[in-house]
Amino acid sequence: MSVGTQVLKSKADSRAEIMKWAFVVCAMVALSECLVQIPLEKGKTAREILEEQGLWEEYKQKFPYNPMSKFDHRFAVAGEPMTNDADLSYYGIISIGTPPQSFKVIFDTGSSNLWVPSVYCSSPACNNHNKFNPSKSSTFRYNGTPLDIRYGTGSMTGVLAYDTVTVGGLAVTNQIFGLSQSEAPFMQYMRADGILGLAYPRLSASGATPVFDNMMKEGLVNQDLFSVYLTSNSQQGSVVTFGGTDPNHYYGPITWIPLSNELYWQITVDSVTVNGQVVACSGGCQAIVDTGTSLIVGPQSSISNINSVVGASSQNGDYVVSCNNIGQMPDVTFHIHGQQFTLPASAYVSQSSYFGCRTGFGNGGDSLWILGDVFIRQYYSIFNRAQNMVGLARAR
């Protein structure tokens, strides 16, 4: 096979891979009214991988879960190499460069930067993930501004550059993104290569314009919103929809909730109740709707109270329950903007052959809550930049 033929075959294979992970749904009324959808794979979590290798207890002690370090730098311990969110499991495929180089990314509404591993990185986490190679892209432009980001799931350092980023067939030209030069050790156990942030530009490290902002600026989306549907158990079915909503994934009315802070997707929760009794967030609290956090996270006293009321006990940092009791455990209801968003025990308890059953309520900071994947799996979530609102509807 000639070199030219090999290149063409490589391009075709890359495009086929990308199209496998993207599809377009168009309304019958007008072909222009299209929704660009990115299927999300629900892969093995880092916890599951480490448990299979008998390493989970060691890593849990070495890298404790610190979800608030992502949102509040007061919780980022100086010199701490990383924290872990070992239960993240959803990722989708994007491509960067010409010809396209493919990457698995977490679509993260709790951060604003796009970054992927690069050939400049020699960390173990880079060596077992796809690396971007600038020399293989004809549209690459170097920027060189340093980038340093800390997440609840780890940290990275790198530099910024520009290239064409393709998301679900939408080609965003001259998109600024990060090339990692170092990544925290725990990230080698994550299936995703990098992270695509979907929060507000004000949050973006080093002033980098987020991908969705450029989509809006370039008129690539029909509406200035995107929506997220997460399945519970099956690997297939989860999806991010850019430019609209998909009624196939929700039913009933959409509750539109104005943001209380246009930095994250932050809203006001009125209270949390169990059996009609307020068990947390009395008088109201602030919460971030975050696809990049696996659990529902809140202040320790509130989380301890919820777990106590539903019958969970603290064990090695997790709140565990008897798997036989799930059917008798009470619902937990979040009261938001005059509406009730109820989670049955089947939604907030996860079961594993390794760790048994544990709840999805985890300890966080001193006031802020995070409504992560445990919540989003129950409620189709719409992130509306045009009106600065979050929409929630019952997921199918």
From TrEMBL:
The keyword Flavoprotein does not apply. The keyword Protease applies. GO terms for molecular function: aspartic-type endopeptidase activity. InterPro entries: Aspartic_peptidase_A1, Aspartic_peptidase_AS, Aspartic_peptidase_N, Pepsin_A, PEPTIDASE_A1, Peptidase_aspartic_dom_sf. Keywords: Aspartyl protease, Digestion, Disulfide bond, Hydrolase, Membrane, Protease, Transmembrane, Transmembrane helix, Zymogen. Disulfide bonds join 121-126, 281-285, 323-357. It comes from the Eukaryota. Signal peptide: none annotated. Its EC number is 3.4.23.1. Residues 90-393 form the Peptidase A1 domain. The active site is at 108, 290. One of its GO terms (biological process) is digestion. The chain crosses the membrane at residues 21-40. Belongs to the peptidase A1 family. Shows particularly broad specificity; although bonds involving phenylalanine and leucine are preferred, many others are also cleaved to some extent. This is pepsin A. It comes from Lates calcarifer (Barramundi). The lineage of its organism: Eukaryota, Metazoa, Chordata, Craniata, Vertebrata.
